[in-house]
Fold this protein.
Amino acid sequence: MNETSGNGSSHASLRTGGALELQGVEAGYGESIILRGVSLQVRPGQVVCLMGRNGVGKTTLMKTIMGLLRAKKGTIRYAGTDYTAKTPDIRAKAGIGYVPQGRDIFPQLTVEENLRLGLEAADTKLRNAGIPESVFAQFPVLRDMLRRKGGDLSGGQQQQLAIARALVAEPTLLLLDEPMEGIQPSIVMDIERVIESIKASKRMGVLLVEQSLTFASAIADYSYVLDKGAIVAEGSSASLSEEQVRRHLAV
Ligand SMILES: Nc1ncnc2c1ncn2[C@@H]1O[C@H](COP(=O)(O)OP(=O)(O)O)[C@@H](O)[C@H]1O
Ligand SMILES: [Mg+2]
């Protein structure tokens, strides 16, 4: 399935990405406003965690960054370009990859077909190179399951597929919405390792929605705490006190 030996990696190094910058973003559903003036930044190569209780607007924020939801106010800039009014497709082509909450892969399609769909977000050169080997190095289990239907995979394998699908387009910014949610501990460690390797590669920025304070503080360069649609605390992992975070995370 890898038609060419591929020069994807040399090509990828040309994609440098840039900073994601949100300024005063307001968004919601219909008349209801969920996000209230959210400002945040993810610099290239940084892992930034977004924390907060259920229902405070974390997923809404991810959707707004991806353009699936329109920002009513504020601006969303990436690598110096204003994407506030742009479609999700244009944002994906600009290098923003998105792994939605709840690992929504296509259950009726094979693993390979799911991965090929990820290539749709890639430029022509990457698309022609096919699914990059690096994906199978990161997720060996997917190579063995290429012909299986997505729906036949375990929850943890589906999550790996969802992340792999975003990675095949070689994004420069990855949005990960609660990738560890509802997954057995052994797979949680696999996914943590993948996020760690992404961080070590310094090839993309990551905005990670994560409830585990332990993992968040271990991996994040910087964290934001969202409450009722507003950023209520932020800082480097060292400067954000546990008490400060727990206060906003406690139910
Ligand atoms: N499609 C939708 N239509 C209307 N309201 C929604 C929709 N999705 C989420 N909400 C509401 O928006 C708020 C924030 O939800 P969400 O962003 O999913 O929170 P989180 O990801 O932090 O758990 C909640 O009150 C939720 O009920
Ligand atoms: Mg959510």
The two ends are 48 Å apart (CA to CA). DSSP finds eleven helices and ten strands in the chain.
